[in-house]
From TrEMBL:
Organism the protein comes from: Flagellimonas nanhaiensis
GO molecular function: pyridoxal phosphate binding
Keywords of this entry: Pyridoxal phosphate
Family in the record: Belongs to the pyridoxal phosphate-binding protein YggS/PROSC family.
Domain Alanine racemase N-terminal: from-to ranges: 3-216
Free-text function comment from the UniProt entry: Pyridoxal 5'-phosphate (PLP)-binding protein, which is involved in PLP homeostasis.
Keyword Transmembrane: no
Listed name of the protein: Pyridoxal phosphate homeostasis protein
Residue(s) carrying N6-(pyridoxal phosphate)lysine: 25
InterPro entries assigned to the protein according to its UniProt record, in alphabetical order: Ala_racemase_N, PLP-binding_barrel, PyrdxlP_homeostasis
């Protein structure tokens, strides 16, 4: 099947309230243009430098989402154009995003990344850290970031019950956070292998790469 078929098949299965971020990391501009010409505008990358290069070479109405872990010294390169940063897991990173957004007179939408997987290699906040972050005076003072929701990655496993349990937990944290931050609306969870479960558990934004663009080749 063509890339366009993959994209349309996935879009047809998504509920209306679920946004698709097409994860184009490692894929060339031509592949992104194929999806673009099929009408898609929202793309996700996990490396700042790669996203900047793609932004420079591609149509300016593309919405770029940074879905990977972000180093603070890289924020300045994307502050001008990034439309959402998914992997925010510290106050210091948020402060840097705020500082760089101010330079461009922007307000950058951010998702706080929660650690929900069993693996300890994945980034993210635990519940106590989330609470501490949003209650801090520094957090409340920032004018150029907007927390729009939460992001999480489930354990990489075939055990569906495990994955479901982790997504359920993230949804509970999201509902709880909404009492304190009533404007949050986005729950970013679900990738090629698990987005069906994620949607059943309340995801409103899925990040899908290989099921659209094909397997990635890292060599
Ligand atoms: C690569 C990546 C995805 C997409 O993964 P696929 O399995 O190819 O759909 C989603 N989220 C994050 C954070 C990623 O790094």
């Amino acid at each position: 099947m063509s890339l366009k078929d993959n994209l349309n098949n996935i879009k047809n299965t998504l509920p209306e309230n679920v946004t698709l971020v097409a994860v184009s990391k490692t894929k060339p501009n031509e592949a992104i243009m194929e999806a673009y010409e099929a009408g898609h505008r929202v793309f996700g990358e996990n490396k700042v430098q790669e996203m900047v290069q793609k932004w420079e070479g591609l149509p300016k109405d593309i919405e770029w989402h940074m879905i990977g872990h972000v180093q603070r010294n890289k924020v300045k390169y994307m502050a001008e154009f990034v439309s959402m940063i998914h992997g925010v897991d510290s106050l210091r990173l948020l402060q840097e995003i705020n500082k760089q957004a101010l330079k461009h007179s922007r307000v950058i939408s951010c998702l706080l990344q929660m650690h929900i997987a069993e693996e300890d290699t994945k980034f993210g906040l635990d519940f106590e850290e989330l609470e501490a972050l949003i209650s801090s005076g520094e957090f409340k003072a920032m004018q150029h970031i907007k927390i729009v929701g939460l992001m999480g990655m489930a354990t990489f496993t075939n055990n569906e019950n495990q994955v479901r349990k982790e997504f359920k937990y993230l949804k509970t944290v999201f509902d709880n956070l909404k009492q304190k931050l009533p404007n949050i609306s986005i729950l970013s969870m679900g990738m090629s292998g698990d987005y069906g479960i994620a949607i059943e558990e309340g995801s409103t934004m899925v990040r899908i790469g290989s099921s659209i663009f094909g397997a990635r080749n890292y060599t």
